[in-house]
Write a structure and sequence with these properties.
heterodimer, A: alpha/beta, seven-stranded mixed sheet, two-stranded antiparallel sheet, 32 helices, 12 strands, B: alpha+beta, five-stranded antiparallel sheet
């Protein structure tokens, strides 16, 4: 059995770079069961010794206030089901920020596990004028301290050698006196006795270190977790023990912190010399510009605009290429497979379904590239700093900005980007409102409706047009709706203590290619595999609903009509035209008769209040798996050949001339508006729902997202339709 | 009593006490906001909140509401 070694450290200490330097390409990522924390492990090979290296989430302390934070403590104490006990630790420290980093070390030493300390970014520390004596530190801590620079691999061989000794036969734990007053230790014993008494209810033995966290972390996660199982009696007892452990007026947490920072001061004395004060670091000079009241905001806005625009422009050709590839693949398959259900399943179901998902891959790759670069260089923290106030108005924090912004291109990478949000309530709220941002798949619907039904006038001397303004209004709608939704979510489902907004401003550094690319490929792969499987299944189901029952009567009827055309119209262009028109009409007839079409008729009354007829309703219902399908659906439903070269133009014309059963025009400005508003707010994207399920771990969150968005969309479309109607009548009168 | 949020950009203060309880207090303590520590305010965000401070060897962003928990020596 290979040993398991945990990689631990504060956030922003270059832990990922150390992990990459130690494991190379042999890495696996997954999720811890039940929580949203990514589990990353890799294989460590040193001179015949093999070990599993587990990269734990960055943390400042072992005190946990959420289920995500308790993972580190649980893994280190061997309390996580399905996770092997840890044989040793590699602790990564930022050499230029030792004081705060050593605080965590003091807690880790109390675990009595073999430890190696990697003093990372030693080059930067030296450049800033720090001088550090690693030997003295090592003597005082009783563990090896290896100065390294993971980015250029300086010191990695020495670190590996140290790990090899750690893996050696001895595996000696570190003797370390716990840093706490006797009254705390007595209280821990009391808690352990109490927990032992309740042992059967608990089903496990609580380790001493966990009992210590239970004692000190008032309102922490260890406490709420145990209280859930053991009940009020236990909570009362805990309160009593805590009261008895206090030696002065200060809280237990305050006593712990003071003791540990005193210990850190003693460890560092004479071993670490700081630079003289007054030197402003390079990062601070950069921030004088990048977080400047005016310039910082301007640069931020320009940067975001650039990211956004380039996603459209750069991803465009790749998206077209993928689209083209799948079209020709479909055409080729149509040639090979004889006409019938099998051909339709493969071409219209499988190939079109998979292509419909994969077409978003370039956008996702480009976006994750930008996000990875901005994250790795340290700009994300600045973006959060600049945007925090705006988002605090709806109960969120600056960390929600990037995910929301990303969602304007596509909610899938947007939802993925919420992983940087530490507080789970903020994170889930952000996930639930992110799909309200108008993504690129809504664009085709807006464009078609606007161009077909709204007159184009120049505004401001031709600088912008009415079309541009309407489009902008549609984008604005999502934001305007998201604010109250987020506010309500934070007041109801995700009500809780307002999380403190404490964010470290890391030093700027050049993004590392391996870290960035790994992230980009990881996201791309996950998207294809997970969302792809679900989308594929849904596409097949929708295909089946739109294809069957395929009544023979319709086929016979059109065969007869075809025969009639063949016998009456002379061979040539005219006959081809007539035949192709018949084919479209046949497709329309089949669709009308399909289960989906029947459902459309059935639900027509539901959508009538929005000003829609059964065709709009059916097209909309059928585009719930992916909203951009609406274009193809409308084309089919309004009797256009699906493989028409110039679908857009002719679709616009057909929509304009489409009539209701009484002969009146189907579409009007109110109807077009109602369709656009519905699409702006409705959650018609199975891939997004699948990603939400994956990121939150439960089906109830995608279900809720779907329900509230669809409900909102319906109400808003209703109000829009009738409001616009009323307004039109007023102006006409 | 003067608190951290009352300082202006580029001003410095020394921590006298930490108000609050539970999570927020513990997090500030763990990051090193302890009695006797010197904190300088670097800047405020464009809309006046949050603020960026420097303590020990690093820089931290926090909201004024949290900074108001940090009492400073007179």
């Amino acid at each position: 059995m290979p040993a398991t070694i945990a990689l631990v450290g504060n956030p922003n200490v270059g832990k990922t770079a150390v992990f990459n330097a130690l494991t190379g390409l042999a890495q696996k990522t997954g999720n811890y069961p039940g929580v949203t924390v990514a589990r990353k492990c890799g294989r460590l090979q040193i001179n015949g010794h093999a070990a599993e290296l587990l990269d734990l989430p960055g943390t400042y302390s072992l005190a946990a206030h959420s289920p995500d934070e308790v993972i580190v403590t649980d893994v280190l104490l061997g309390q996580l089901a399905g996770e092997q006990a840890i044989d040793g630790l590699i602790v990564v420290l930022d050499a230029a920020n030792l004081e705060r980093n050593l605080y965590l070390v003091s807690q880790l030493l109390e675990l009595h596990k073999p430890i190696v300390i990697a003093l990372n970014m030693i080059d930067i520390a030296h450049r800033r004028g720090y001088s550090i004596d690693a030997d003295i530190l090592s003597d005082r801590l009783g563990v090896p301290v290896i100065p390294i620079c993971a980015r250029d691999r300086t010191g990695i061989p020495a670190l590996k050698q140290s790990i090899e000794q750690l893996l050696g036969a001895a595996r000696t734990p570190v003797p370390f006196q716990a840093l706490c007053p006797p009254s705390h230790l007595q209280a821990v014993e009391k808690l352990l006795d109490e927990l032992k008494r309740q042992g059967t209810a608990l089903g496990r033995t609580v380790p001493k270190q966990e009992a210590y966290r239970l004692l000190v972390d008032a309102g922490g996660y260890v406490e709420s977790r145990l209280a859930r199982t053991l009940g009020e009696e236990f909570t009362r007892k805990l309160k009593e023990v805590r009261q008895g452990a206090r030696t002065n007026g200060a809280s237990l947490a305050s006593e712990e912190a003071t003791l540990r920072y005193d210990w850190v001061r003693d460890i560092m004395a004479d071993a670490v010399r700081r630079p003289q004060h007054g030197r402003v670091s390079r990062s601070e000079r950069i921030d004088n510009l990048l977080t400047h009241r005016i310039w910082g905001t301007v640069i931020f806005a320009v940067l975001m605009l650039l990211v956004f625009q380039s996603i459209f422009t750069w991803a465009g050709p790749f998206m077209d290429a993928i689209d083209g590839l799948f079209s020709s693949l479909g055409a080729a398959a149509s040639q090979v497979i004889p006409e019938g259900p099998l051909q339709s399943l493969i071409v219209d179901g499988a190939i079109a379904g998979v292509g419909g998902v994969l077409v978003f891959l370039p956008q996702i790759l480009f976006l994750s590239l930008f996000i990875a670069v901005l994250e790795d260089c340290g700009y994300m923290a600045r973006a959060a700093f600049l945007m925090d106030k705006l988002l605090s108005w709806c109960g969120l924090s600056g960390q929600s900005f990037i995910p929301m912004f990303t969602s304007f291109a596509c909610a899938i990478p947007g939802v993925m980007a919420t992983r940087v949000i530490r507080n789970w309530r903020d994170r889930f709220t952000t996930i639930l409102v992110a799909p309200l941002m108008s993504c690129s798949a809504r664009l085709p619907v807006y464009i078609i409706m606007i161009e077909a039904f709204f007159p184009e006038h120049d505004i401001l001397g031709g600088f912008i047009t009415t079309h541009g303004v309407i489009l902008f209004a549609m984008y604005l709608l999502g934001i305007v709706v998201a604010i109250p939704v987020a506010y309500v979510l934070k007041k109801t489902l995700f009500r809780g203590n307002k999380p403190p907004f404490l964010l470290e401003m890391p030093s700027y550094k050049l993004p590392q290619a391996i870290t960035v690319l790994r992230k980009v490929f990881g996201e791309g792969k996950e998207f294809i595999v997970r969302a792809g499987t679900l989308i594929f299944a849904v596409a097949i189901i929708v295909w089946a609903l739109a294809y069957f029952p395929r009544s023979e009567a319709i086929g016979d009827q059109f065969d007869a009509e075809r025969a009639a055309v063949a016998s009456t119209v002379p061979e040539g262009e005219l006959r081809d035209e007539a035949l192709s028109a018949l084919e479209s009409a046949e497709a329309g007839a089949y669709l009308r008769d399909s289960y989906l079409g029947r459902a459309g008729h059935l639900i027509e009354p539901v959508f009538k209040p929005l000003g829609w007829d059964w065709r709009i309703a059916t097209a909309t219902i059928a585009s719930f798996p992916a909203r951009e399908i609406i274009i193809a659906n409308l084309a089919t439903l309004f009797n256009l050949g699906a493989n028409d070269e110039d679908v857009d133009n002719s679709l616009k014309a057909t929509l304009r001339t489409a009539t209701r059963e009484d002969g009146s025009p189907l579409f009007s400005v109110p109807v077009a508006l109602s369709v656009m508003v519905f699409f702006a707010l409705c959650c018609q994207c199975a891939a997004t729902l699948a990603i939400i399920k994956r990121e939150t771990g439960k089906w109830r969150w995608p279900l809720l997202t779907f329900t509230y968005m669809t409900g909102l969309a319906y109400v808003a479309a209703f109000v829009t339709y009738h409001g616009a109607h009323w307004l039109g009548a007023m102006m006409g009168a | 009593m003067r608190t951290l949020d009352m300082l202006k950009a580029k001003e410095t203060g020394v921590v006298a006490a930490l108000r609050g309880e539970g999570e927020i207090q513990q997090r500030l303590l763990e990051l090193g906001v302890c009695d006797g520590i010197e904190i300088s305010v670097l800047r405020f965000a464009p809309l006046g909140d949050p603020m960026e401070i420097r303590l020990r060897d690093f820089r931290l962003t926090l909201r004024k509401a949290e900074a108001a928990l940090v009492e400073l020596q007179a």
